[in-house]
Amino acid sequence: MRVVVVGAGIVGLATASALIRAGATVRCVDAGEPMGARSAGDTRIFRVAHGDPGLVAEARRASELWDDWSMTAGRTLVGGERAMVSGPRVPAWSAAMTAAGAIHRVDRRSDPWGVLHDPAGGVLDLAAAGAFLRETVRPERAEVTAVAADGTVHLADGTTDGADAVVVAAGAGTPALAAPLGVDVPAGLEHHARFTFAGPADRPCHLDGRPDGPLASTYQHRTRAGHWAVGGHLPDEDTAWELGAEEVARRSRAAVVDHVRRHLPELDPTPVGELRCTPLRGAGDGVHRAREGAVHVVWGDNLAKLAPRIGELVAADVVGDTPVPAGEGDHAP
């Protein structure tokens, strides 16, 4: 079986790797650098904690697969830092973890909602994972302009390629490729930026749902030794695509630096690094899949932590183990 995977971010590479293990011949292409765009950067937060029991279960399976990848790569890809969640979503997330049988605890001593501790959480070494997958998949630089339901792939250089199946996992490029197939992928994008600060980096990853000034919520985790990443979510009007990446980064920087000054005094409040990305507007947690003919489409947000599980499931769809009916989508892997 021959498969073309469009997109060489973490999800595309994970899917291509799973297809190779299943015995398929795979061509993985990307218009930009592999692990660029929304998969750029050294680290992400891995967590089992989610607000939906189905996603909790899928994250638990992803944790097992990350361990498998670590064994194959010869290095730890998810650290043991743990993760914690605070703010008004704690009761619902705790209930979801309980329903899914996931180990956690809620400390109610310091916060009216409690602080949820996720012992399976930690820092995801995204750079190392990408390097490991690139070695297996060997993606190539090529821009895809269209895909057809019969498996024909049209490239920007005027050539075409044919495959038994096509997987579209192209991030911000997915809506344009999916629309002609009748697959409705939300096309709205927004700008986002997180910032790196020098300071202690030996504590759990933290997702804080409590508002702080213009920030509706914040998140923080280690990036590299002695450095800590902090990001926050601004109102929609401050992250609109029309504002441009520079203006959104400026607004984000001002809000995050103010947050650091007031709540994280152990950090030097002058950013030493910045990472930008383009998430789907309002997507939140969740994975969506659909199929039209020979084309399998996957999209969503906050996907890096679930990448090996997404790859496993999409590869199974492609080789026919767990088919997804044409046009059907779901909200969990």
Question: What percent of residues are in strands?
Answer: 25-35%
The backbone outline, from C-alpha atoms, is globular
Any idea of the CATH topology of the largest domain? FAD/NAD(P)-binding domain
CATH class of the largest domain: Alpha Beta
Distance between the termini: 23 Å
How many structural units, i.e. domains?
2
Q: Report the biggest beta sheet as strand number plus sense, adding barrel if it closes.
A: 8 strands, mixed
Unreliable residue runs:
323-333
Going by helix content, strand content and strand pairing, the class is alpha/beta
Cα Rg = 20 Å
Helicity, in percent? 25-40%
Q: Count the beta strands.
A: 19
Describe this structure in words.
This protein is an alpha/beta fold and 333 residues long. The protein is built from 8 helices and 19 strands. The protein has 2 domains: 195 residues, 3-Layer(bba) Sandwich (FAD/NAD(P)-binding domain); 133 residues, D-Amino Acid Oxidase, subunit A, domain 2 (D-Amino Acid Oxidase, Chain A, domain 2), CATH 3.30.9. The strands form 4 sheets. It has an 8-stranded mixed sheet with strand order 5-6-4-14-15-16-13-17, sandwiched between helices. Strands 8-2-1-12-19-18 form a 6-stranded mixed sheet. A 3-stranded antiparallel sheet has the order 9-10-11. It is globular and about 60 Å long. The two termini are 23 Å apart. The C terminus is likely disordered.
Task: Give the tags.
8 helices; globular; 2 domains; 8-stranded mixed beta sheet; single chain; FAD-dep_OxRdtase; 333 residues; 6-stranded mixed beta sheet; disordered C terminus; alpha/beta; D-Amino Acid Oxidase, Chain A, domain 2; FAD/NAD(P)-binding domain
